[in-house]
Amino acid sequence: MKKIIVEEFIKATNSRNWKKVLSLTHSNFIRHSSSIPNEIQGNHSLVEFHKNELKTFPDLDEKIEFLIEENDLVAARIKFTGTQKGKLGKLAPSNKILSASFNCFFKIVDNKISDTWVEYDNLNGLMQLGHINSDLI
Asked: What start-end ranges are recorded for coiled-coil regions in this protein (predicted)?
């Protein structure tokens, strides 16, 4: 079942087991997103992205809310929780907790993740962290 590969990937990411993350993804892996960075190419670049994300959210944790598998795709709703202890781009640490769900689609080829499509509600996240005042909207 392809869902197990996704579960193992999230578990490896949460435990910072980068060797396992690399073994679960193709070397030419691509992460697609409308959020910055828009595209990550290569599984080593993905690991570097996650390591940098941990500089911002050192207590980062992701929990799978649900998975749906169809053919070579797995759709996931994932809950992200983390305290912003580091800079977020040019934004100073807020020391506030971000708790938000996001959608991710995983393409599995030859029992490894070849692509992901990830979409976040960035506006909600920036509001939770205190970087955008909801009165402005």
From this structure: none
